Amino acid sequence: MPSKDEIEHASVVKFARWLESEGMASFDDPTDFRELQSWSARSPGEFWGAVATFFDVAFVTPPTTSLADESMPGAVWFPGATLNIAEHFLRGGADGATAVHLVRDDGSRDSITFGELRRQVGTAAAGLAELGVGAGDRVVAYLPSSIEGLVAFLATASVGATWGQTAMDYAAPAAADRLAQLEPLVVVVGTGYTFKGK
Hints:
alpha/beta, 8 helices
């Protein structure tokens, strides 16, 4: 059970209090998640628009509204909007702060700082651009879970291309069959992976 202090400093509670301060909603108890959930179900467009504002979603192209059609299924969320997930992932964190901790199957660990991750993603994105990769192209990978895979994914997203990946526990012919369907412009391949200490 979280402490009173932990509850008070939770992002969801900060969000509920912000909604009240902006005059968007009113809660008997902003720390009661059920009240926020109930409001979100009654006002889905307002809720998701507020989420985007509160969490500073950096739209490349802003939406015309947060919800154009409330029918479920078939709702139209943030019509006209575009954004870049790599920008969102890379904008947080001081250069020296750890961005990712990786724990491998054999227990070995690795990590990367935000500064180094931004540098590596920038270098990889420049390399993809030199290869002619741009918006709408596909980059695929046959990689283990790794920091290098994250770098390649973020670099791909940063240039507007689509990413697909198959884990290396797939046999190479099966991975090739699966990834070839995407008709990639670039294929990123690892040299091996560790499983059960081998």
